[in-house]
Write a structure and sequence with these properties.
The protein is mainly beta and about 400 residues long. The chain has three domains: about 150 residues, Jelly Rolls (Sandwich); about 150 residues, Jelly Rolls (Sandwich); about 40 residues, no CATH class. The chain contains two helices and 35 strands. The strands form seven sheets. Strands 1, 2, 7, 8, 10, 13, 14, 15 and 17 form a nine-stranded mixed beta sheet that branches.
């Protein structure tokens, strides 16, 4: 039996955006608690909390929502627990209307409240919503276990409300039905190798290197393993870096990439990140946020504070990407074929006076990564100047 009401929830008309997910809540502190009338945001998506309707039709304002990581949603990351409370995700008022939305759930008792664009349903469980069209969006529900599953919406979605009595919800970047672009799924063997070894994954040439500890000393006795424990907060196979680094040689195999992103789970020790030959040794990924490394801007949209999962995004042309850690897992590498033209020293897509100034400022011998060394001969000279002038404009 359905109990329908009309909920007026921020409905701003705008052009629909591509696939969006509910957040992973990695940017919310563990233990954060919210009550009815509270509001917050996660990964840019506005969230507001409201009264919950029990299955008999009465409403309660006494529930609460809590950020935890006990795996009640069957995901190894931050998750949001809803105990007699509803949360409204306001897409139209924050990230923009969506055409597809998905979230993972773990339901452990009581009924569920659900609404899309103000069209409200009160059901015994999520499976009762499978196949329905709610608020103009088609609903698909898939159970992955007796208590956990995934809800997917397709349509014009301006707002979505979810609530339960003992309900946990979460989302991660990849699912078995929505795989990563490069997910290390084809890496064979539990122990992939040790420093000095090489392998290839989905066409990308990979080199296993040593790892630099926070005191600057190098260690060459670590190893890279492949497992599927979900420590990078993704599905499928992932790489475990144990006192070792892996270098992705894009330029030497599939070609340079841009708009690169990578999921990670860091659980101890410092981090090595090397982009285009420029190595940075930091305590946690969060230390790299807003930093220019190898001519590429690094952002950490969530996570990266240590003992958590997170995501790293890279803006600019990435020829090589090295990642290393002491207890680090990585997965779900994404990227587009680079479109930067010769002579573009800063990866902004054009060759202009900025690139000329970079050539002049970098003139002479250089070691490691050099912004203006366009032909990678460790020397900025007339040859680099000619490349810039020939591609001007």
């Amino acid at each position: 039996m359905n109990h329908k009401n009309t909920l007026i929830v921020g409905c701003l008309l705008a052009s629909a955006s591509p696939v969006l997910a509910t957040p992973g809540y990695e940017d919310l502190a563990l233990g954060s608690t919210y009550y009815t009338t509270d509001a917050t945001a996660s990964e840019g998506l506005q969230m507001r909390f409201f009264d919950f309707q029990w299955y008999g039709g009465s409403w309660t304002p006494d529930g609460e929502a809590t950020v935890g990581n006990a795996g009640w949603s069957c995901n190894p990351s931050h998750e949001l627990g809803l105990n007699n409370i509803n949360v409204v995700f306001d897409y139209a008022g924050s990230t923009g209307p969506a055409t597809e939305v998905k979230f993972d759930f773990g339901e452990h008792g009581g009924n569920v409240n659900f609404a899309v664009n103000g069209d409200f349903y009160n059901e015994y469980d999520f499976m009762a919503l499978d196949g329905k069209v709610i608020g103009g969006a088609a609903v698909t529900v898939v159970n992955s276990s007796s208590v956990c599953g995934t809800v997917r919406l397709s349509g014009h979605i301006e707002s979505m409300m979810v609530g339960g009595q003992e309900l946990w919800i979460d989302d991660i970047t990849s699912t078995p039905n929505d795989p990563c672009q490069y997910g290390y799924e084809d890496v064979a063997g539990v122990i992939v190798g040790t420093p000095g070894d090489t392998f290839t994954t989905e066409g990308i040439d990979m080199f296993i290197n040593g790892f630099q500890w926070s005191d600057g000393t190098w260690h060459h006795t670590g190893q890279v393993n492949a497992d599927s424990h979900g420590y990078a907060c993704s599905y499928g196979q992932e790489l475990e870096l144990s006192n070792a680094s892996v270098l992705h040689d894009f330029a030497g195999s599939i070609g340079p990439l841009e708009n690169v992103s990578l999921q990670f789970g860091e659980y101890g020790g410092n981090i090595n990140v090397e982009i285009n030959g420029d190595l940075r040794n930091v305590n946690d990924f969060r230390d790299l946020d807003g930093m220019l490394v190898g001519g590429v801007m690094v952002s950490i949209p969530y996570g990266g504070n240590g003992n958590d999962c997170g995501k790293m995004t890279l803006t600019g042309t990435v020829d090589t990407l090295g990642i290393g850690g002491r207890e680090l897992w990585i997965d779900c590498l994404e990227g587009d074929a680079a479109t930067s033209q010769p002579g573009d020293t800063n990866g902004d897509g054009s060759v202009d006076v900025t690139d000329l100034l970079n050539i002049i400022q970098g003139w002479g011998y250089c070691t490691g990564y050099c912004l203006a060394d366009l032909n990678n001969d460790q020397l900025v000279n007339v040859m680099d100047l000619l490349i810039t002038l020939e591609n001007w404009g």
